Amino acid sequence: MIPTGLLGGSFNPAHGGHRSVSLFAMDALALDELWWMVSPGNPLKPRKGMAPLAARLASAQKQARGTRIKPTAIEQELGTRYTINTLKKLVRRYPQRQFIWIMGADNLKQFHQWKDWRDIARMMPIAVIARPGYNNDALASPAMAWFRRFVRRRDQSKNWTIWSRPALVFLRFRPDPRSATALRNADPDWFMEYANGGIRDTVTRKLVT
Q: Taking the model in full, what pTM does it have?
């Protein structure tokens, strides 16, 4: 079994903060690979201001160079809109991999709004990355009230492959101030750098346009 992390997001655009946090998570969880799941469209985020999928994937591949991070737009191929459906198909398609879902504290804050969120927790372990400004709300969230008895110790995070599920672990790293919102505000047309055509997905090897 290949220990593989899954980190979903818009990556609009991907930036060095995504990279640094992901490398920290890979070390903390002893991952062989981490897949950046570049979302075709997040049901909880507005579509306005969202760059084309190919441009966001290209920016993610640029940030992931020289690492074992693999950006992928596989959700477009799978035809899934919700995380629960994506994860079900990934588990069936890649039986040689053992997955852990990774998300920021901002996602834990609203996790109870996700479709079938308890089933996600029963399917694979979850690692939550602390984010300044969100941690208190995440700890007070409805989802955390359910998760509380399933929290694992941080010093055991490398053992996640043998945990029974549900299981949740908090990972705390040095905060990274970079944000996609700030990058978009500084350069609203950032995606034009990647407007020359399609890009090949690092996981599926298919062309994304």
A: 0.93
